[in-house]
């Protein structure tokens, strides 16, 4: 999932910045920000809910996550 190349200059010197999580229609989207260390461009990679590693979590773990629990029940 991690981009290997800058889409602007094709350099590989990318730094991952603090990701942002946004809730759209009760779906959590994680936006990863990458800054190219060569040309200075910043670009985003948006990961939708389906690509999160929910399989690694059982239901009890989800229920204990108060930050995500509101409006996110299946
Ligand atoms: Zn670049």
List the quaternary state of the chains: single chain
Strand content: 25-35%
Average of per-residue pLDDT values: 79
Helix count equals: 2
Rounded Rg: 15 Å
Spans of at least 5 consecutive residues with low confidence: none
Counting helices, strands and paired strands, the structural category is: alpha+beta
Instruction: Name the shape in a single word.
Output: elongated
From N to C, what is the helix and strand string?
EEEEHH
* Overall tally of domains: 1
Largest sheet: 4 strands, antiparallel
Number of DSSP strand runs: 4
Helix content range of the residues, please?
Answer: 10-25%
What are the distinct ligands in this entry? zinc ion
N→C terminal distance: 26 Å
